[in-house]
Specification:
Helix 1 runs parallel beside helix 7 and helix 4 runs parallel beside helix 6. A hairpin with a 2-residue loop joins strand 8 and strand 9. The chain is α/β, with parallel strands linked by helices. The protein is built from 14 helices and 25 strands. The protein has a four-stranded mixed beta sheet. The protein has a four-stranded mixed beta sheet with strand order 2-16-18-17, with helices on one face. The protein is elongated, with a radius of gyration of 21 Å. Bound molecules: uridine-diphosphate-N-acetylglucosamine. The site of uridine-diphosphate-N-acetylglucosamine (UD1) has 21 residues, from helix 1, helix 5 and helix 6.
Length: 419
């Protein structure tokens, strides 16, 4: 909600156990995918986030019957009859572009606008458009409105991505499951959320092989039906809560969390000096000892260190002894949280893709403004480990990715209020 703030009194070591929310980045493409089905999909463990509600509004606009309650979204797409998404709905969230593949697959036509400029820098969609062209769609892009048409339906083809884009991979998967023949995606994104999307589609009767690897093969089918699917846990939320605990020198058990989902970032916490144990399907991270800098971290496509965890991990490293360096290779403007961290006492210098952090002993509460989703979360992490009170405004950014962040942190012993 606009106007809300998070007020955090820092300095208390957090401890306890949590079960992390369902993954935002898995729910959004799966919601778009539900459009392709004739029948009802029940998505369990869905995080109740503004982007999820925005996806539901788009689905309803397209003629589906979609409702969200108690971490469950039920979508019946049998009545879907529209292929246009109005500009204001497209702009509500970046991932609205994933509806392009689903609409083209379902109707052979779609009209939507660019998802808009972004907090993280330019987010082109050239790979998405090139791919649907290759699958037989004409793309008309005028005055910011993209109209795609495939008169005879889409056909399978071989698509080599110049970069393993998560969104482009998902869009192609959605376009391909109802296309004629076989689609092969080379250099596909390998993020775990792609595996979740593949699992959902296969449960609905699609034939998707190799999701999670670099080559994905999709055999087009005539029709998909609905299914019941459990959304995977949110690995970035897990990284955030582990960071919060590490910043306060506390300890946490993340329950029912497949450790393979954390293998791209957990080693960094070990390098800092945290105790990390994986046991019985849970993860323990303890940060009772002094933490140290980690040298260089380069953000990379999965299985590399995730760009989405860069800001929250940086917030921990601000108070880790010695130097740490980030090289952000995915997005151009992903250091916008740095000014706030510096305001709170951090020693960070940025130059282009690099950010150099010299650990300081103490940070202090301040009035700061969330600049984007993960940047805002990083401010919360820093605030928890800082002396005094921090007020984070523009909470709506944080709310885009974290379900009741204040309740989760409070359950770990933090002093956090939404005002
Ligand atoms: C997804 C995630 C986001 C994450 C990102 C990278 C969702 C909803 N969002 O975003 O949280 O930070 O992956 O892991 O899952 N690019 C192009 N042309 C294109 C498409 C992408 O140049 O057509 C570039 C982008 O500008 C960026 C890079 O490729 O530099 C990666 O983007 P991509 O993997 O597509 O990210 P998203 O799917 O937007």
């Amino acid at each position: 909600m606009p106007g809300q703030k998070l007020v955090i009194e820092g300095g208390k070591p957090l401890s306890g156990e949590i079960k992390v929310q369902g993954a935002k980045n898995s729910s959004l493409p799966i919601l778009a995918a539900s459009l392709l089905c004739c029948g009802e999909s029940v998505l369990k463990n869905c995080p109740m986030l503004s982007d999820v509600y925005a996806s539901c509004r788009i689905l309803n606009r397209l003629g589906c019957k979609c409702r969200a309650e108690n971490n469950m979204v039920i979508v019946d797409s049998s009545s879907a009859d529209k292929a246009e998404i109005p500009d204001e709905m497209m702009r509500e969230m970046r991932s609205s572009i994933i509806f392009m593949g689903a609409l083209l697959g379902k109707f052979g036509y779609c009209s939507l606008s660019y998802p808009g400029g972004c907090e993280l820098g330019p987010r082109p969609i050239d790979m998405h458009l090139d791919a649907v062209r290759k699958m037989g769609a004409s793309v008309n892009d005028e005055f910011g409105v993209i109209r795609c048409r495939a008169e005879k339906g889409l056909h399978g083809t071989k698509i080599s991505l110049k970069y393993p884009s998560v969104g482009a991979t998902e869009n192609i998967m959605l376009a391909a499951v109802l296309a004629k023949g076989e689609t092969i995606i080379y250099n596909a994104a390998r993020e775990p959320e792609i595996i979740d999307l593949g699992m959902y589609l296969n449960k609905c009767g699609a034939v998707v092989k190799g999701a999670g690897g670099s080559t994905i093969v999709i055999e087009g089918r005539e029709r998909l039906h609905g299914c019941i699917h459990n959304i995977m846990p949110d690995r970035i939320a897990a990284a955030t809560y582990i960071s919060a605990v590490a910043a306060t020198r506390g300890e946490i058990n993340i329950l029912n969390f497949d450790a393979t989902l954390a293998e791209s970032f957990l080693p960094v916490f070990e390098q800092m000096g945290c105790d990390v144990y994986v046991y019985d399907g849970n993860i323990y991270v303890g940060a009772r000892k002094p933490l140290k800098g980690v040298g260089k971290i380069i953000t990379m496509p999965h299985p590399g260190f995730p760009t989405d965890a860069q800001a929250v991990v940086m917030a921990v490293l601000c108070r880790a002894k010695g130097s740490s360096i980030f090289e952000e290779t995915i997005f151009e403007s992903r250091y916008r949280h740095v000014n706030a961290l510096v305001k709170m006492g951090a020693d960070i210098k940025t130059a282009g893709k690099a950010a150099v952090i010299e650990g300081v002993r103490k940070m202090y509460g301040a009035k700061v403004e969330a600049t984007d989703l993960r940047g805002g979360a990083a401010m919360a992490v820093a605030a928890l480990g800082a002396e005094g009170i921090t007020e984070i405004s523009e909470l709506r950014y944080i709310d885009r990715g974290y379900e009741s962040i204040e309740n989760v942190l409070t359950s770990l012993g933090a002093s956090v209020k939404r005002v």
